[in-house]
Amino acid sequence: MTTAIAMELLAPAGTMAAFEAALEAGADAVYVGAPGLNARALARDFTFAEIAAMAAHAREREKRLYVAMNSLVKEDEIPLALETLSVLAGIRPDALIIQDLGLLYLVQRFFPELAVHASTLMTVNHAVAANYFKELGFARVVLARELSFDEIDAIHRQGTVEFEMFIHGAMCFSYSGLCRFSSLHGGKSSLRGQCVQPCRRRYDWLPSGKRATPGQNGQSGKGGKGGGYLFSMNDLSGIEHLAMARDAGVVSLKIEGRLRSVAYVRNTVKAYRLALDALDASPERRAGMLAEAHRLLDASMGRKRASGFLLDGREERLIVPRLSGSTGEVVGKVIRLETAKGRQADQTAQAQVVLQAQLKLGDRLRLYEQRTGDRMSFTLYTLAIKGKKAERAEAGQTVTIGLAGVEPGRLRQPFHGILFRVDVSGRDDNKHSALARAAARLTVPLPAPSDLERLLAELGTDSAAPGRQTGEGRQRGHGAARRGRAASPEWWLKVGAPEAMALRYPFNVARVLVELSHRTWEWGLQTMRRQLEKRPLVWTLPAVLRQEQLPWYRDAIAQLRRQGAECFQIGQIGQIGLFADGGGSSAGGQLELYGDYTCNVLNSAALRMYAERGLAGMQFSLETDRATLASALAGFSRSLSGTGVRPMQVGLTVHGRPPLFTARLNAPHFQGQRSFASPRGERFYLDRRDEAVYVHAHAVFSLLPHADELARMGVDYFVVDVSHGQPKKNVAELTTLLSGRGGLPAYFSGNYAGILS
Predict the structure, then answer these.
(1) CB crowding 556-568: b at 16 or more within 10 Å, else e
(2) What is the Cα–Cα distance from 661 to 175, expressed in whole angstroms?
């Protein structure tokens, strides 16, 4: 008889008051953000002194503190990352939660005493990846949120590493770690804690007669009818299913919410502590404990709750398109806006609202514009019922409220708005906290500048002018030519069908990439072998492989290798585990593994980690800006000098329609390959496939106008993706963008010409 595991209850904290509330409510562990390098854009980061105080406080009570250092790190942030790691090594938290393999490289090289957990942003959703992460050195893996209990159980049975799962809180529509919408269409990276939440916006389906094919003008006027909050996920709640989590081998249950209030943390932790205790309680007590747990969750002011992907067959409950998905309690609907009259200094506009709940002066409110997704927060200072001032009003009444501090220019007519009450309890509790006062008296030593300089010198990083290098350190001759290659980058072509190979392109195709699937497997072996005799074929794995797909991919890869296939591209680092011998031989020679841009590389330390794992090439992140790419390439070249590490090529996708969302949910309201429009007139389309649902922009992503500059920086190969759209139109588009002549198609270049936030 096996003994049931005692699952850790892991709580979030964005303030010290929330940290204390979590422990008081029954959390076994708390996770907080590292200053400036965590994937939540908090209004105020913790100081090192506060983290030290919390770590000591947790140890005294035999609790644990984890520090989320889970942002992608740009090249010019490596000095900050080293300083942060040095300080945290002295504080000794129980573990760091990271997603950037560059941070893993820094930890293992300079601070091996720090334990590391793999963030959910690393999209670990099958046993091969989980086991490979243990080989990389992770003590724990935070599984992807898109898994069912059956899949988690399979990972446990086939796995060797301990893992935790999210059990409660916000859900993203896209797989965590694979969303590029906020970054490429807004400059704010969700992988760097800056997400502007495009999945929470309202979109309109385009009329069937306007379902543009990829490559048409990227702008439209108005969308069609039948739209809504198409991608706004309900919150996850697994409180009814904790026994299934325990049976599946989960060691830690994680609550999302470092941006949430103290009351939310307190109520949610209390609820899950009750539910955990109820697992071993008598049936009579269990019912009452669960009822109290649900009451606490109802008081937490979250979104509508559902069981996420945990239970097969419940996915239709994950999105309610008519609901905005904004957090808080719905107070009422705005029926009219008007300019305030008189000299009322505390307001700039007024709104008439039909109330659905009680409202009182002093409430903190959020006005949500349904069309644009704009959110405007304010405190209620003026309230009137039929023209008479009031202190409170009840559900069913129509009231006039003052929108204190809301700029009139943000209120566009007609205004379609919903009013939410927001919980800000505990916002100022830090100043009353004994722990906060103790932290204020602490002094945490920072590393000496000379020590940081020594570490940076060992890395080959130029700390004198971080983020301002132009790539001269890795010009041709120092980069590719140093490795005995030609001076100009190779052009690699990603195709979706064999007919794309019969076309003439405005460059010499050096390699062809084909995504490995049941469909491409057939024509790849039968049709393309003859066509590609002079062009090496690179079989690419999708970014997401599900647990049940592993046997097919193992067999397909093995058969390809037996027939001479030598080149493969992985979508995530955990997929290296599918190649049991790593860099071993195939029937045709030496295996070459390359990495896709979905590996999320933004710095030279991450490139170094992949190089040391034996990869032949790695694509840099699509989200990069010019300065980050240039300085990372220069730093990577210097870091390899004299090390004996096999040189690794660095590539970049320079043209294509990359997925903005990569999602598991094929929701009932998705219909065919539909196109839809944002309130700003941007046009996108759904691509529904067996393995995932993708969202792409109609406008093409292209860095072709910058090709000469990228070559001077030292990019080794350019990837042009023509797997979407009409092949002949793709060729015309490529030719126009490369030559700069003729009418340019609608395109965007992401963050390249700006600054990645």
Answers:
(1) bbeebbeeebbbb
(2) 8
Q: Which two tokens stand for residue 440?
A: 């204020």
Nearest CA among 173, 193, 198, 179 for reference residue 682: 198
The pLDDT value recorded for residue 216 is: 43
Tokens standing for residue 89 = 């090594």
Verify cis geometry, omega within 30 degrees of 0, for the bond prior to 414: yes
Query: Other CB atoms closer than 10 Å to residue 487's CB: what's the count?
Result: 11
| pTM beyond 0.85, yes or no | yes
Token pair listed for 12: 């979030």
- Rounded-to-integer distance, Cα 271 and Cα 296, Å: 6
Residue 118 · residue 133 · CB < 8 Å: yes
Residue 222 confidence (pLDDT)? 44
Token digits of residue 38: 């965590």
The DSSP H or E segment spanning 285 is helix 283-298
CA 210 to CA 548: how far, in whole Å?
38
What pLDDT sits at residue 526? 67
Beta partners for residue 592, in sequence order: 567
Residue 582 is predicted with a pLDDT of 46
Tokens of 635: 């730093």
- Residues whose CB is less than 8 angstroms from the CB of residue 636 and which lie 6 or more positions away in sequence, other chains included: 474, 604, 607, 608, 611, 650
User: Using CA atoms, how far apart are residues 645 and 176, in angstroms rounded to an integer?
Assistant: 32
What are the two backbone dihedrals, phi and then psi, of residue 554, each rounded to the nearest 5 degrees? -60, -50
C-beta of residue 38 within 8 angstroms of C-beta of residue 283: no
CA atoms within 13 A on the CB side of 594: 28
| 463 token code pair | 């700390």
Instruction: Compute the distance between CA of residue 232 and CA of residue 216 in angstroms, rounded to an integer.
Output: 27
Residue with tokens 């060797």, as numbered in its chain:
160
Residue indicated by tokens 């003008």 = 217
- The C-alpha angle 676, 678, 679, rounded to 5 degrees, equals 135
Q: 379, exposed or middle or buried, with CB in 10 Å at 0-12, 13-18, 19+?
A: middle
Q: Mean pLDDT by 10-residue block, N- to C-terminus, for the chain (757 residues)? A: 73 95 97 90 83 97 97 96 98 98 98 98 96 97 97 95 96 95 93 91 80 42 66 94 97 95 94 96 92 89 85 82 71 79 57 88 80 75 90 90 75 73 60 81 93 93 46 41 58 90 92 90 66 77 95 93 90 94 50 97 97 96 97 94 87 97 93 85 91 94 96 97 90 90 87 94
> Can you tell me the distance from the alpha carbon of 648 to that of 609, in angstroms, rounded to the nearest whole number?
11
Q: How far apart are CA 600 and CA 557, in angstroms?
A: 24
Alpha-carbon distance of 121 to 97, in angstroms, equals 10
Whole-angstrom Cα Rg for the chain: 27
Q: Quote the CA–CA distance of 738 and 261 in Å, as a whole number.
A: 51
Maximum C-alpha span of the chain: 86
**Residue whose entry in the numeric block shows the structure tokens 């799962």:** 165
Of residues 391, 348, 389, 392, the one with CA closest to residue 367: 348
Q: Determine the Cα–Cα distance for residues 465 and 442; give it in Å rounded to an integer.
A: 32
Q: How far is Cα of residue 237 from the mean position of the Cα atoms in its chain?
A: 20
Q: How far is CA 489 from CA 594, 702, 709, 718, 756, in A?
A: 16, 16, 11, 7, 25
Contact indicator for 153, 163 with CB cutoff of 8 Å: no
Name the DSSP letter for residue 618.
E
Q: What dihedral angle (degrees, nearest 10) is formed by the CA atoms of 96, 102, 104, 107?
A: -90
Report the distance separating Cα 381 and Cα 371, nearest Å: 26
Nearest to 400 by CA among 414, 422, 418, 383: 383
In one letter, which amino acid is 1? M
Q: Quick one: DSSP state of residue 232?
A: -
Spell out the residues 6+ positions from residue 352 whose beta carbon is closer than 8 angstroms to its own.
334, 335, 336, 337, 338, 398, 399, 400
Element (H, E) at 20: helix 16-25
**Sign of the torsion formed by the C-alpha atoms of 665, 668, 674 and 680:** negative
